[in-house]
Amino acid sequence: MPDDLTDGRIVIVGASLAGLRAAEELREQGFTGSLTVVGDEPHPPYDRPPLSKQVLLGVAPADSTGLPMRRDPKAEWLLGVRATGLDTLGRRVLLDNGESLPYDRVLIATGTRARPWPNPAEAALDGVFTVRTREDAAGLAAALDAGPRRVLVIGGGFTGSEIASACRERGLEVTVTERGPAPLVGALGGTLSKLAAVMQRNNGVDLRTGVTVTRLLGDKAFTGVELSDGSQVDADVCVVALGAVRNVDWLADSGLAAGPRGLACDAGCRAFTMYGIVTDDVFVAGDVSRFPHPLFGYQLLSLEHWGNAVIQAEVAAHNMVSPGPLRRPHLALPTFWSTQFGLNIKSVGVPTYSDHVVIAQGSLEARRLAMVYGYRGRVTAAVTVDMAKSLDYYQHLIETGAPFPPPPGAADRAIAAEIPIPSDVPDPSVLSHGPTVALTGYLPDRRLTVV
């Protein structure tokens, strides 16, 4: 590795939002060496949130979601090329075209892909879609333009719910199936998921909860599904929204701490080896990372959020070109938003890291509220529905470790917030959607037995 950290060879694997922002920040921080960005898709980095919203509504074409560059990172872009391995000893990124790229430091920003339908023959039927890439969204938008009689969405998480919302806005008949008790329950817990269920049904969604899809029907084209309760639903289009898979398969022989929940790193974005030793030349950012957070018991956080990808990429880039004492920690609080069925849902913190919740402002009946989550007497998250201006206040409560339930003044009531009720966060294994923010360590009260 060169003595001067602003020189040498840096390779970024992942032509993603995180990859682009990291490349820009490296130049911003004075990096003058060679910079190469590898991406398995043929396109320059583009924005994914519009794919399940504007593109499906037909108000924006899929190829219009390219990300603007803040500055030209003067990088060599290897697009349509897949990384197949990482030789950490020889410091080389292996590529599917048989070549390899030498590096002094590497940033892994390979993100996630859509979890496919488990039966490949059924998944290959005409009319069966996942939504992750531009091509996915363009294909589904074209299928919706054709005016199907019914769209079936498998999975009631954020992506599935946003797709169902877009279909209803287009006037299409929609059925949503969810193995858990309600949509969004994995991300928001039991109380708010009840509101999500009411909103879907009030907007004409045929919502089936507590059921699984056992089979996709059709010869060459999709015609419907069989459900675990014995019923059958006829539909022309099926959207599989079963969550995301971290793109870590290519790191299987790298010796890094990469697994189904992502690649583990320290708060400075430096990757861990499989033995928990921190590396000094492998960094990670975005959806593929798992990083410790002091506000959540130093457990490893796994996030699928736009804002986190940007902030973490900037921290990783800064640390790649800075000597040890000048490195910064990535301690941003998780925040995310979703618009569906006319509701604007915003969240800060980790709602699943909770044992109780309380409605601090508004009400479920009014469909306008702020719900605060607590764990062992401390505020850990807040979710607002059509009340986003309140979120900054609750973010401050989380950051300062404020007591839960929040004190008077944190609520629009004269006394302290209502009586806390259990947050009712289900075991993720009973859901067909997962949380977009997950703690992937062990809760402090779960003791490990060393055999």
TrEMBL record:
<dbReference type="InterPro" id="IPR036188">
    <property type="entry name" value="FAD/NAD-bd_sf"/>
</dbReference>
<dbReference type="InterPro" id="IPR016156">
    <property type="entry name" value="FAD/NAD-linked_Rdtase_dimer_sf"/>
</dbReference>
<keyword id="KW-0285">Flavoprotein</keyword>
<dbReference type="InterPro" id="IPR028202">
    <property type="entry name" value="Reductase_C"/>
</dbReference>
<feature type="domain" description="Reductase C-terminal">
    <location>
        <begin position="336"/>
        <end position="412"/>
    </location>
</feature>
<feature type="domain" description="FAD/NAD(P)-binding">
    <location>
        <begin position="9"/>
        <end position="312"/>
    </location>
</feature>
<dbReference type="Pfam" id="PF14759">
    <property type="entry name" value="Reductase_C"/>
</dbReference>
<keyword id="KW-0560">Oxidoreductase</keyword>
<dbReference type="InterPro" id="IPR050446">
    <property type="entry name" value="FAD-oxidoreductase/Apoptosis"/>
</dbReference>
<dbReference type="GO" id="GO:0016651">
    <property type="term" value="F:oxidoreductase activity, acting on NAD(P)H"/>
</dbReference>
<protein>
    <submittedName>
        <fullName>FAD-dependent oxidoreductase</fullName>
    </submittedName>
</protein>
<dbReference type="Pfam" id="PF07992">
    <property type="entry name" value="Pyr_redox_2"/>
</dbReference>
<dbReference type="GO" id="GO:0005737">
    <property type="term" value="C:cytoplasm"/>
</dbReference>
<dbReference type="InterPro" id="IPR023753">
    <property type="entry name" value="FAD/NAD-binding_dom"/>
</dbReference>
<keyword id="KW-0274">FAD</keyword>
